[in-house]
Amino acid sequence: MVLALFLTAMGMLLSPSSSSAATGDWWLPTNRPSPDSQINVTGEPFKGTTATGDVRGFVDAHNHLFSNEAFGGRLICGKVFSTSGIADALKDCPEHYPDGSLALFDYITHGGDGKHDPVGYPTFKDWPAYDSMTHQANYYAWIERAWRGGQRVLVNDLVTNGMICSIYPFKDRSCDEMTSIRLQAKLSYDLQDYIDAQYGGTGKGWFRIVTDSAQAREVIAAGKLAVVLGVETSEPFGCKQILDIPQCSKEDIDEGLDELYDLGVRSMFLCHKFDNALCGVRFDEHGLGTAINVGQFLSTGTFWQTETCKGPQKDNPIGDASTEAEEDLPAGTEVPEYDADAQCNVRGLTELGEYAVQGMMQRKMMLEIDHMSVKATGQVLDIFEAASYPGVLSSHSWMDLNWTERVYSLGGFVAQYMHGSEEFSEEAERTDALRTKYNVGYGYGTDFNGIGDHPAPRGADTANPVTYPFKTADGGSTVDKQTTGTRTWNYNTDGAAHVGMIPDWIEDIRLVGGQGVVDDLFKGAESYLDTWGSSEAHQAGVNLAKGRTATASSSESNPVTSYQPGRAVDGDGGTRWASDWSDSQWWRVDLGSSRTVKKVTLDWERAYGKAYQIDVSTDGTTWKTVWSTTAGDGGLDTAKFSAVTARYVRMLGTDRGTDWGYSLYEVGVHSG
Fold this sequence. Notes:
The protein is of the alpha/beta class. The protein is 28% helix and 20% strand. The protein contains 19 helices and 25 strands. The longest helix has 22 residues, at 177-198. Residues 1-22 have low confidence and may be disordered. This is F5/8 type C domain-containing protein.
């Protein structure tokens, strides 16, 4: 009892008192709980916009505030906040007592015996730590420190995984993914209310959930943190597949997207870790990849299947089979061995997945392509390019870097995982020329509470350590070492132990990678909101060819189905034009009158053109080639070119990609 009173007294001494807000500073609460964590940042947070009206600030494009409520509720220990106070929020899971022996996921992911001091507040001897995957790293006061240090956008990805939940022995709730997503959304709004109460009422706190880009700009201009809700889960809307049979319908997708939108969700992943009824995933690597492949089999009845990659983009290598992971498989079942030269997932975007992509576009939502297989990613980018839709995000380094320019050319946004300062700076340098070319900022995805490691300390004896106190990137605030309870963290010796260490990590990047990397990060909020705002403003282009008269060099004869030229402009994605099985062949459409033309989209059936060109004409006799390729690979192609005036548009195929003819589901002709 005496010890408990002593620790409580120490916590009260080390926490900020309510009198700290007596000056009327808008950024300091008048009713902070006591005891609580210190923030250790002084000075007014920057407000307003630049002379050109741009917002400023950093973007954490990928975080999981409430994943302690995911995976059955006992995988991530501790809470983001508690109305009962910090001691209740920052305590370990009951099975971790007395020495961490039952912290199963710790030693599954790190080896060893998982033992640790389970006591959190106020001593924090062993957690949070940069290499602890199972302890709360997103306590609200630590998020406050990240905001005070210059962060202005936080994407809170609501996350869970039903299979991990079902396998993990400790849980206190069901494993239904959508139930967990709903709870995490509710708690996000509860956290907003909790912080508002510290500042005098509704709308007065610094933590602001936003549902459109204009609202986000207002929040950031006021110096506060714009919080965007996203979703990262393996089976959204129940869209898993079992033995390749989808377990959801288009109606489920529509209902699910509508529900998420109503909850305030504006970005999401369509697949994560396991192949589902919407898309194939980008594999995890090494032993973890094998373990997740086992989970894939237990969830879906199928292992990952690979093929030789068709372009420079690759999925991650799966790695060797793990005997330990295979113990969870039925007797006689083994993880397949994979050819090192066949690194790409055979699964891309399914028909239901394409329907979900179109549904997200209709709702002006942003799509996360990290965790999608390269085949699925390529198909998504094809769809977005055909529609000139900018809403594509890569938030934490799970996209092959060879996609970067396609993302930027669409108007999308890219963030890098929260690597150590050396690795982060090196990767930033590799894509620096593209950011300069497209005049965009950069982001980071911390993935805190996402079951991943974070930057390790470089050591107090490094040649260029973080020196405390230091100034924030805008120069207006001062950052000192962070203290919670009786524990003080030093980035040089503790690394990125929790989300409050983001300002320290950015200072370390400045020391290692230079001011240019930090400048790009400080432009991140503006670039993220540019992508979001452009998505909201997107208007579906008018297809000038729809319903117009089409002709062709030939049409395949079939006694049951018509493959006439008009089938490619009837607005029905299930019908198609098909030519005879020979070269060369052409298909053309009469737009009815001369129009400005800048883009043609071609949705190929399996019988595609490997070499073909787009020609235009004003009279149907004299033709001008405006675009061509000799490397067609089927799927959805977008031909963009300088604006021309044309009444007739022609596809002229000179080399078939298959032994069949040329076949097009739908052709679109657009003026913009």
